[in-house]
Amino acid sequence: MKKITVHASTEYDILIEKGILSTCGNIIKEKISAQKIAVITDDTVDRLYGKVVGKSIREAGFDVVKFVFPHGETSKCADTLVNIYDFLCKNSITRTDCLVALGGGVVGDITGFAAATFLRGMNFVQIPTTLLAQVDSSVGGKTAIDLKGGKNLVGAFKQPVCVICDTDVLKTLTPEIFSDGMGEVIKYGMIRDAKLFELIAKNDQKTIWTDLEDIIATCISIKRDVVEADEFDTGERMILNYGHTLGHAIESYYHYETYSHGSAVAVGMCMMAEKTCEPETVKKLKSCVKAYNLPTSVPADIKELVPLCGKDKKRAASQLRFIVCKTIGKAEIHTMSFDSFSIWMES
Question: pTM of this prediction?
Answer without folding.
Answer: 0.93
